Amino acid sequence: IPVEIFTTPKEGSKYVAREIATLIKEKNAAGVPAVLGLATGSTPISLYAELVRMHKEEGLSFKNVITFNLDEYYPLEREALQSYYSFMHRHLFNQVDINPANIHIPNGELPKDKVKEHCASYEQQIEDAGGIDLQILGIGNNGHIGFNEPGSSIFSKTRLINLDNSTRMANAREFQNIAKVPRMAITMGISTILKAKRILLMAWGSKGPIISKSVEGHVTEQVPASILQQHNNVTFVLDEAAAGDLT
Ligand code: F6R
Asked: Are strands 184-187 and 34-38 parallel, antiparallel or unpaired?
């Protein structure tokens, strides 16, 4: 897996933002929408700040952009502060000129008997948009991408999953306490992610050990990010700490 190493997360985020901007402009020139796959969590916050800056200061437009988010907690109302729906609107969508109709985020509010159908239609919407041109990923300390926890099948599609306890603990800071962290999530699957034409995985700080396993270890469903070794157009964008365990 090719890696790009930067001194700070901010520099790494600028690199990713530039690639996104280039894609948007190319697609604009061709008269077709740019289809982005987006992630949440602490890692891409500096990326979204840079995209908002490019929109405000450099006129980068999102009018021709279609987005699909990787995941959402289940069950959780979208208006909850901790929902990824809220996160995305706070950090990006409310601050740029994207058409709300072009935003797709898995719905954490549906009754359980409607979830399967929703997941199938999410997959279909991605296909109808022409597939994801560029997928942004973070990585969990256990190697998860999206919320595909260790053991997720390489063939998995968008679905309801149980969150690992380590993931619930890592994300507890967003909630009042661990008991309030939802036990499930809807996530794109590994196969959904692998279908993206281009993938950029971002990691900063303490992710060094799992980055080394993902890049240099065996391809195994026990380390979901290691499966990215089988994608032909993926780059890991790292800061020096996250690259520190690579040989
Ligand atoms: C978020 C997502 C997760 C996070 C991962 C890292 O949409 O899909 O895989 O990218 O849990 O989270 P942070 O960035 O908070 O360390």
From this structure: unpaired
How many whole angstroms from its chain centre is CA 129? 18
CATH number of the domain at 80, please. Answer: 3.40.50.1360
In a domain, 112, yes or no: yes
Asked if residue 25 belongs to a domain, the reply is: yes
Q: For the chain, what is the domain count?
A: 1
List the catalytic residue out of 71, 123, 133, 239.
Answer: 71
The protein residue whose alpha carbon is closest to atom 12 in ligand 1 is 41
ipTM of the complex: 0.99
Contact 42 CB / ligand 1 (< 6 Å): yes
Cβ(195) – ligand 1 distance below 6 Å = no
- Catalytic residue from among 72, 133, 149, 239: 149
Distance, CA of 243 to CA of 238 (rounded, Å): 6
Is the entire prediction scored with pTM above 0.90? yes
Question: For the purposes of burial, counting CB atoms within 10 Å of the CB of 238, is it exposed (0-12), middle (13-18) or buried (19 or more)?
Answer: buried
Has residue 203 been placed in a domain? yes
pLDDT in tens, 159-216: 999 999 999 999 999 999 999 999 999 999 999 999 999 999 999 999 999 999 999 9
Tokens in use for 1?
């897996």
Residue 245 resides in a domain: no
User: Distance from the CA of 111 to the center of ligand 1, in angstroms?
Assistant: 25
